[in-house]
Amino acid sequence: MTSYKNNSSRVDYGLVLILFLMFLTSCITIYSAQGQYSGNFALRQVIYYAIGCGIIAFVIRLDSDQLKRLTWYAYAFGVFLLALLIIAPESIAPRINGAKAWFRLPGFSLQPSEFTKVFIILALARVILEHHQKNPLKTIRSDFWLLIKIGFVTGLPLLLVIKEDLGTSLVIISIMLGMIFIAGISWKILLPIFGSGAALVSGIFYLVIARPDILEKYVGVEQYKLNRIYSWIDPWNNQSSTGFQLVKSLLAIGSGQTSGKGLFGREVVIPEGHTDFIFSVIGEEFGFVGASVVISLFFLLIYHITKIAIQAKNDYYTYICVGIISMITFHVFQNVGMTIGLLPITGIPLPFISYGGSSLMGGMLAMGLIFSIRYHHKKYMFSKGA
Amino acid sequence: MNTKKKKKALVPFRLNMLFFIVFVLFSMLVLRLGIVQIVYGEDFKREIERTEDVTVNNPVPRGKMYDRNKKVIVDNIPNDAITYTRSQTTKAEDMLKVAEKLASMIEMDTEKVRERDKKDYWILRHSKEAEKKITKKEMQQFQAKKLDDKDLYQLQLDRITKDELNFSPEELEILAIYREFNSGYALTPQIVKKHVTPQELAAVNENLDELPGVDTTTDWERHYAFDKTLKTVLGKVTDSDEGLPKERLDYYRSRDYSRNDRVGKSYLEMQYEDVLHGQKAKVKNKTDKAGNVLDTVVVSEGARGKDLVLSIDMDLQLAVEKIIEEELMRAKQNRATGLLDRAFVVLMDPHTGEVLTMAGKRLERNQETGRTEMQDFALGNITTSYNVGSTVKGATILTGLKTGAISTGTVFYDTPILIKGTPPKKSWRAGLGSLNPVGALKVSSNVYMFRTAINVGKGNYVPQQTLSLSDDVFDVFRNSFSQFGLGVKTGIDLPNEMFGFKGNENVPERSGLLLDYSIGQFDTYTPMQLAQYAATIANGGSRIQPRMVKEIREPKLDSNEVGPVLQSFEPNVLNKVDVTPEWMATVHEGFRQVMQSPGGTAYGSFGNAPYRPAGKTGTAQAFYDGPLRKNYSAPPQTMNLSLIGYAPYDNPEVAMSVMVPWAYESNTGHHANNDIGRRVLDAYFELKKKRAEENMNPIKPDQQVEEKKEGDELREEISQ
């Protein structure tokens, strides 16, 4: 009944293959894109991947009980780091590209929000699980109560990052939305929430476009934030600010056409080409075909995680999977979307592909959880559920 | 159990739904990707090719200036120059390498190199030593973002020692060249050295492929064929180091000028900048993705600036200037001429307003040598003004006739005017007797003018009593004088023209001042205004705008030829004096008698002139206001001499004004005004005769017939 498969067969090789393809794509593209800055980023990315494998190897051994026990420590640690970031002097937390989101210590730098996202997923999974255990009978009232708990757990870290790092805030919000969705809260609550959310977003858009003076005067939104929206809507006439990045990105991707210009065939110099705008490099060098393959790879990854979530038949694991799906989906959609003018520009990386230690560590931590789910997946679950 | 089952079913359902949402989002990405890459891919590809082209404007030579007989006055002299063109991506090290090679081939003036340049260069050359000038502590502050790059650089600059800046002459040359390289704009050729010797040119040309960015070209320099003659009026052009004048930067920038373009900064060069500057050549640089220039395509050739044909007759101008110089020096030999330092002559076509000669000379002490030198002061004709004296009496008579104060038959007996509280006001000599207007002009009676002015002012003159005049009498006079050009801008096509000064009449002795005004001793006028006044009398009452530029001509590539006329300026009548032909004839006759009738004030000088001139002399008691004024506590009293005239009296073809301010300090003295005037008119008619004999173009060249006709029409028009 509790017989495990042997160790090697419990490793998810499908996921290993997907990650390996990501690794190849990442290293090749970074190698081609590095140029704006000195330093061998591709090599460092290989090292980060190696460290990431170490993280996976550690996380894979944690079973659900251990995870639950660690959850609040991890969450507290993450929130603590985010709070520290705000009060830390600029000598160890410098402003990079306008955002105070990194600790820079001699030898390495760290973006705590990348980890904290995963810790939030763990915390939410545990909160939802325990809520359902305490309230086996679902009522509107208990659903509301759950909603408040979820809101509190996400709200705390969200408040800490929202001023400095819009991209990460949006990721946290999307994780929260995914978790609320999967928590089984009644549609009677969900529909009004999502509905009013959509109305709010449209309202803000209306204000940005038609009445920016109101936002500036009464809400205190800085001009440069509004400019991002304008440059997204009409990049060609706003080339001085962020519109310049979008124009460059569109030129790069667009001129890649169907089959791309080949590796190292780049013509357009894109700022941040190895990090946030790596997809522009992919689109230019490998064309529509290559870019679609990369998107498909992410889709495959999400499909894979979804499959695991369904197979797990364990609500705790399902919640974790959904959180990770939400996180990765938002990252990919936002990052790729901004490079092709579908969404405004915000500084979040393309998971597993963009250069960056913290981002990759966060991603690998999440993958470690997925591996762990498969690893500790008891065989009887299959037979019983079938 | 039922709820449990329900809940179990709920989770996969929502998972599937979530997966569906992911699918939709990713499909949107792929769809949008397809639109960007496949549908619009071609456009983006083209856009890349387009934006990597950079269009540059290359300067063209300015237009030339000719005199009315097509003699070149201002020309462009080509000289070989070495240029350097930087691409957007050229690195400092590459530029240094090129500068080193170039330094071995050419001699470079190192005067422009400043200490800051040397320091920048030192840091560039000694980056490691420069780094050592920053302490560890400062480096930490830099990493902590307390100091920025600029602060560090400034620290390095401050800590460079004098010894370190001890460059060898060779290195200084490299630095001077590098400095020029750096001062240009990307893709715009920057002149590194002008006046390149043939040897240098050959050396550079032979090695052009080793000197990326370097090229040889022809630079243009303004050349003044008649050296200093008229140079103040012709104006100045900024040189390429100077670039656009700061105060008009926005004006030029908005008109597609580059910062290092040369523009006219004064007088004619500035007034006609639009015409002279030409159409720049447009060159398109095709660059690769790194910004290196691959190919250069000429988009439009550009055109040299258009040429100006001035109304000036250069031969006449030179002859007149010589006369002024000689007469000025001769007059200086008389006693009490310490303040005399200048004289002006303007010759104008009274029918077209074309300025044939605009000459002015000034004796000036050269600060360096301490010697007194004759300087060109043609500009003084429009920028300085003086009390001109009796020359204005023609205008006074016409004002009297116009206002009904006198008629052509009014006779006054010339005897001193005695106003209570004012010194007696009398004519220059006693016993002029009873005079009508013609006689009054001939002998230059002050008293006749005084009586006329009193009548204009509706005053009741009783000797030894106070005299009160109507409130608006000054307005009436100034209004009337301005119709002749006295006290108003003449409208000449030059910037910075002055009005002259109006005296302050709002004092108790107002009536006496009006009498002074009526004989030209109150307001001041410029020599150009006098010339316009002379021309207005000469042509019968039309005030015509004086013109320096006669025509604008298309540039011709063959520099020896003058291109076709692009624009020719028609005579511009500013206003007509509202007088009857009879009144005008009275003044004409008076002016004729001044010069041609025995007893006329200028008969001695002009009585035997074959070209039968008419005119009016002027001697004004004035106060000195020149450069030596600071040597005196109160302004010394001097005599200003003036003369206006035109000839021949019955069909005037030239109008003249002569002004000799501060001629002498005694009561009587020389007659430089008449001496200069006679010789100038002689020179004019001699030149005309000489040209007719040589069968050359007379003073009015190719358009003589046409212009004569214009003149006749004008005269008919005026007489109507």
Characterization of the model:
The complex is a heterodimer of chains A (386) and B (720). Chain A is mostly helical and 386 residues long. Chain A has helices at residues 13-33, 41-59, 64-87, 112-134, 140-161, 166-182, 187-210, 212-219, 223-233, 242-256, 278-312, 315-339, 357-375, 379-385, and strands at 103-105, 108-110. A two-stranded antiparallel ribbon of chain A has the order 1-2. In chain A, helix 3 (64-87) packs across helix 5 (140-161), helix 4 packs parallel to helix 6 and helix 6 packs antiparallel against helix 12 (315-339). In chain B, strand 10 (355-365) and strand 11 form a beta hairpin. Helices cover 39% and strands 18% of the residues of chain B. Chain B is elongated and about 125 Å long. In chain B, helix 16 (393-403) packs antiparallel against helix 22 (581-596). Classes of the chains: A mainly alpha (386), B alpha+beta (720).
Order of H and E elements of chain A: HHHEEHHHHHHHHHHH
Distance between the amino and carboxyl termini of chain B: 123 Å
Rg of chain A, please? 21 Å
Structural class of chain A: mainly alpha
Trace the largest sheet of chain A across and list its strands. 1-2
How many β-strands of chain A, per DSSP? 2
- Tell me, rounded to a whole number, the average pLDDT of chain B: 84
What is the number of E strands of chain B?
Answer: 20
Number of helices of chain A: 14
Q: Can you tag this structure with a few keywords?
A:
heterodimer; A: 386 residues; mainly alpha; two-stranded antiparallel sheet; 70% helix; 2% strand; disordered N terminus; disordered C terminus; B: 720 residues; alpha+beta; seven-stranded mixed β-sheet; six-stranded antiparallel β-sheet; 25 helices
